């Protein structure tokens, strides 16, 4: 395989795995762009991104521009990034969940352009949260697309793609981990194909386009008027973050695992009403006469617990109403 001189742009663990794959394959990664360090966790301690941590261990030069727009709010950051990119004379840039839009001057600088590792089967789920939106929508499959980037939002030509099924128990985390493996391998194939001229981009289909909007924290509040399957998909889609949750008596209860149950309920039970409490689960009335069984719950400030353990330290009775 031809050794290429690369620039990499990415931020989360998904991207760090791809960066590691490029380095392990022997490519020369000369520069890394990643998001600025940000506060996180209970203590709001400022931490570096997984991509930055990996790059620094490898001795790769790291830049963290706040913007790449030369006419934007942080022009000094953009000009410094432009100078660095021009200096390294990269064959290609690989992008994975970076978090900034690449302006045209970036797309035009590497000899072979910019390749994006996108965690969906484009054109379905363009945008920021393709894994979560695929699970939330009830998709039965998803995948990774390696795309030749253009100025649009995930609109570039397709170089390679690989698919996986979404199983009934899959969460955003489990799908993420499988797609990260696939993406790290596919981008190596795509780089080799583009460099050798054996792979050229294919325009995306015009049918089936949809947008995976960034997850807003308010979406994680369980809406008990939805039917049970929709609620359970949200629990899986928002795990591990932001984490689906409900409230009871001013206490936030994070739901880690739930399933639709055969038990229905009549018109007398309001949505969110607790129908039954037992060590096997808490049965809650949902929309359209359906019910959800909560199997693993975490109280704010507490530990993630199976229901039997949770109920030993927390009182919840039939007739209680969640989400109020």
From TrEMBL:
Name assigned to this protein: Methionyl-tRNA formyltransferase
NCBIfam families: fmt (TIGR00460)
Residue span, Formyl transferase N-terminal domain: 6-190
GO molecular function ontology, one term from the record: methionyl-tRNA formyltransferase activity
Keywords annotated in UniProt: Protein biosynthesis, Transferase
Organism for this UniProt entry: Candidatus Symbiobacter mobilis CR
Function: Attaches a formyl group to the free amino group of methionyl-tRNA(fMet). The formyl group appears to play a dual role in the initiator identity of N-formylmethionyl-tRNA by promoting its recognition by IF2 and preventing the misappropriation of this tRNA by the elongation apparatus.
Enzyme Commission number(s): 2.1.2.9
Catalytic activity, reaction form: L-methionyl-tRNA(fMet) + (6R)-10-formyltetrahydrofolate = N-formyl-L-methionyl-tRNA(fMet) + (6S)-5,6,7,8-tetrahydrofolate + H(+)
Broad enzyme group: transferase
UniProt cross-references to PROSITE patterns, sorted A to Z: GART (PS00373)
Domain of life, source organism: Bacteria
Domain Formyl transferase C-terminal, first and last residues per copy: 214-314
Binding locations of (6S)-5,6,7,8-tetrahydrofolate: 120-123
CDD domains (UniProt xref): FMT_core_Met-tRNA-FMT_N, Met_tRNA_FMT_C
PANTHER family reported in the protein's UniProt record: METHIONYL-TRNA FORMYLTRANSFERASE, METHIONYL-TRNA FORMYLTRANSFERASE, MITOCHONDRIAL
Family of the protein in this entry: Belongs to the Fmt family.
SUPFAM superfamilies registered for this protein in UniProt: FMT C-terminal domain-like, Formyltransferase
């Amino acid at each position: 395989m031809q050794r290429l001189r690369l620039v990499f742009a990415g931020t989360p663990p998904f991207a760090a795995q791809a960066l590691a794959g490029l380095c392990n394959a022997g490519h020369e990664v000369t520069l890394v762009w990643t998001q600025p360090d940000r506060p996180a966790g209970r203590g709001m301690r400022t931490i570096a991104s997984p991509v930055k941590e990996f790059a620094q261990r490898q001795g790769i030069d790291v830049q963290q521009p706040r913007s790449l727009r030369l006419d934007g709010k942080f022009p000094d950051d953009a000009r410094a990034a432009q100078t660095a990119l021009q200096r390294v004379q990269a064959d290609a840039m690989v992008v994975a969940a970076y978090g900034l839009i690449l302006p045209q001057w970036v797309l035009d600088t590497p000899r072979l352009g910019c390749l994006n590792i996108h965690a969906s089967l484009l054109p379905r789920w363009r945008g920021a949260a393709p894994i979560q939106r695929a699970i939330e929508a009830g998709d039965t499959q998803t995948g990774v697309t390696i795309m030749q980037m253009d100025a649009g939002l995930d609109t570039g030509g397709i170089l390679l793609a690989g698919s996986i099924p979404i199983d009934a128990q899959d969460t955003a985390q489990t799908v993420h981990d499988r797609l990260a493996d696939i993406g790290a391998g596919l981008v190596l194939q795509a780089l080799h194909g583009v460099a050798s001229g054996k792979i050229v981009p294919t325009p995306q289909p015009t049918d089936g386009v949809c947008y995976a909007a960034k997850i807003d924290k308010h979406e994680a509040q369980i809406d008990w008027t939805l039917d049970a399957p929709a609620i359970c998909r949200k629990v899986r889609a928002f795990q591990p973050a932001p984490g689906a949750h409900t409230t009871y008596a001013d206490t936030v209860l994070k739901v880690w695992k739930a399933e639709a149950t055969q038990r229905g309920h009549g018109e007398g039970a309001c949505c969110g009403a607790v129908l039954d409490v037992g060590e096997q689960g808490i049965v809650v009335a949902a929309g359209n006469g359906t019910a959800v069984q909560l199997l693993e719950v975490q109280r704010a400030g507490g530990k993630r617990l199976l229901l039997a353990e949770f109920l030993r330290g927390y009182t919840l009775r039939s007739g209680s109403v969640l989400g109020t």
